Request: fold
Amino acid sequence: MPITQEYLDLKKWYEETADERCEEMGAFFDRRIATYEEHMSFWQEHYGRVAELLPSGVGTLLDLGCGTGLELDRIFRRFPNISVHAVDLSEEMTKELLKKHGGRDLKIILDDYFLHDFGECRYDAAVSVETLHHFTAEKKTGLFAKINRALKPGGIYIECDYIASTPEIEELAFSECQRRRKRDGVPDGQYIHFDTPLTLEHELSAMLAGGFGSAEMVENLKGTPIIIAKKGN
Ligand SMILES: C[S@@+](CC[C@H](N)C(=O)[O-])C[C@H]1O[C@@H](n2cnc3c(N)ncnc32)[C@H](O)[C@@H]1O
Reply:
C-alpha cells in the first residue's frame, strides 16, 4: 500500500530552514520543553494506538526516546502497574515525565540508546515513538539487534515514526544533513536534531537485518506507519 506522510513536506522544510544552524540533539529538546507537548499534538491518535496495540499481558516495557512521556501517558492509563524502563538523552524532557508519572513503576535511564546495554530477555515489549527519524539505517540496525536481544521470547517491538515517502526524499534528507553538518563544523558522531527519515521499505529491512523474526506495518495513521516487529531467534 503506498503511503504519503502528512506530517511535513520535507522538501519544503529543508528549503525554508536552509540557513538555520545545526543544534545538538539533547540541547534542542531541552530548549523547547515549554512548547513540546503542544507541538506534538499531531500524534495524539498515534499515542493511543501504540498503547492499544500492546498485548494484554505485558508486564515489562522498554521505551526508547521517551521524552516527556506522551506515549507513556496512554500506556499507564491502560496498564497502571506496568514496569517501565524509559531511555532518553534529554534531562529536561525526563524531568517532565517524572512530574507526571513519578509514582509509577518507572525507571528513567538518562543515556544514549545506541550506547546503553539493555541486557538480554528482560522485556515483554519495547516501543519507540517519533525518535528514530534522525538516524541512518546502519545505526538503527545495530539498535534493532539490541532491542531484539533485550526482548523475552515472544516479545514485540512497536515503532511509530514518520517516514520518507520516496527514496528521493530519503536521499535528499541525508545529503542536506551532510551539507549542514559540514557547513557548521559538527564533529563526526555528534547527534544533531535534523530529520532524516527512511522509507518504509528501508526501515523494515533494517529491522529484519537487526534480527527481528518479522516486521510489518500494522497501521497507517495520517501517513505515519505503526510497525510491529516480533522477536527473532
Ligand atoms: C520527538 S521526541 C519524542 C519523545 C516521545 N517519544 C514522544 O513521542 O513525545 C524525540 C526524543 O528522543 C530523544 N532522543 C533522540 N536521540 C536519542 C538517543 N540517541 N538516545 C536517547 N534518546 C534520544 C530526544 O532527546 C527526545 O526526547
Q: What stands out?
A: The chain has one domain: 10-230. The chain is about 40% helix and 20% strand. The beta strands are 60-64, 83-88, 106-110, 123-129, 151-160, 214-221, 224-230.
